[in-house]
Structures are given as structure tokens and as C-alpha cells.
Amino acid sequence: MSVHVQNTRMTTAKVRQMKQNGEKIAMLTSYDFTLASLVDEAGIDMILVGDSASNVVCGNQYTLPMTVDEMIFLTKGVVRAAQHALVVCDMPFGSYQVSEEEGVRNAIRILKESGCDAVKIEGGEEVLPAIRHMIQIGVPVMGHLGLTPQSVNQFGGYGLRAKEEAEADKLLHDAKLLDEAGCFAITLEKIPAALAERVTQAVSCPVIGIGAGNATDGQVLVLHDMLGLNQGFKPKFLRHFANLAEEVKGAVGSYISAVKDLSFPSAEESY
Ligand code: KIV
Fold it and tell me: The whole model's pTM is what?
């Protein structure tokens, strides 16, 4: 007797199909098993293990310090949690820029050791040979254009990108190259909404925006930011869907009081 098991896991093909169907794609970051389980159970389409872990998990100012080993460590927990969502792991700074060969080697390592479904890479034409090679050997790649935080030192900050015509033209050109190379999706970060709309219409792969307006095929946010855990960070594009910082501090405050006034643990909570 054969048992039919329905496969409800997202795949890159399903993500592409969502664009064809006009169905919006919801993506969030996660960096650990517990929160990724909740995000997955809530029905998210894709989880990004972003190198934003450098900021929200490790407390660094920039994403640059993350290593391949650290990204693999975090991604393993997320992959164990994801029953439905497609898991994408950011390739950290320095892991794909030096040479095509080194980039491909690191992408293979990330896929093999973390169990993720795809990698994400910042940049356009400059990193195209590595991206092409990865896709040729079976590593699904998500591109990332616009504000690319790994280039913060070159940009001199996290301001809006592609405001000027020359940069907007390069971005559109890069997006077409990534699409032609076979990227299954492209992230567009912090660019004018009108440009994001042009890019979304110009490429066949889904475009996932962050600070790029609502004409893209989907949206991504950093989980800690949208949950309101990260109080100091509130750019214009960010919406707080919860205020967990207050919830957490309230709960911790109650715990401290209960420990100090001996109301915790109670007789019922003791053996
Ligand atoms: O690292 C990250 O979380 C990202 C998103 C902001 C797109 O790249």
C-alpha cells in the first residue's frame, strides 16, 4: 500500500509560481529554533537567516563580522524549525567576493552543513560569475540590490539608495542580469518605490522588498525589528507589529519582584 504524503514545504519553484499567480510573498528573518518555529507555524513563506544576526543577535554595529561558520550554526537551528517555509541563508561578507571559486566552495558548504534551501548574495554584475556558477551546480541564489549593508563603508551609511538616475539605471541593469543568471528571487532594500516597481515589472523572478514600497512581489523585515524588540531602531519603512520589548521587560520585572518577595516559587511550584 502506498501512502501519499502531501508536500507542503515551500520550494524556489513555488516561490516563482507565486509571482506568476500574483500572490504576495511574506518573508521574515529568524536566527534560532524557537522563534523560527513560531514564524513557520504562523505560515510565513520564506525565512531568511540574515547576516543582520550580527546586529540583533551579536550586538555589532555592522553585518561585516559574521563568518560562514557562524551563519551555518544559526541556520541549522532555523532549518530544524522550518516545516513549511523555504530557508535562505545570507552569505556573509568575505565569503564570495574574493574569487568565484571560493564563493562557490562556501555556498556548497553552507547548503551541505546547514541544510538550508538557498543562499542570498549582495551585489550585481561584480559578483555575477560566482552567482552563475552556483546556480549552474544547483545552489539556488537570491540576489540583493539597493542598500547592501555589507558595503556600508563604501556607501558611508544606511541612507536611501538609487535616488540618482545613474545608480537607478545600474540597479535595473543588475537586476536583469541576476534574473537572466537564474536567481530565484531578488531582494531590493531601501530604494524609491517607483524604481522598485520598474524592477519588479522588468524581471521574471519574484522581487522581495524592504523599504522599497508595496509594488514588489513580497516583503521582508527583520523579525526583531517588526516585533518591537529592537527599540532603538525605527526607520520610516519599519512597522512595529508588536511591542515585545515592553512585554519582555514587564515579565522580567514581575519575575524579579516575585523572587525577591518570596512569592516565587510557591508551594505548588515546589517538589
Ligand atoms: O540580513 C538581513 O536581515 C537582510 C534583510 C534586511 C533583507 O539582508
Answer: 0.96
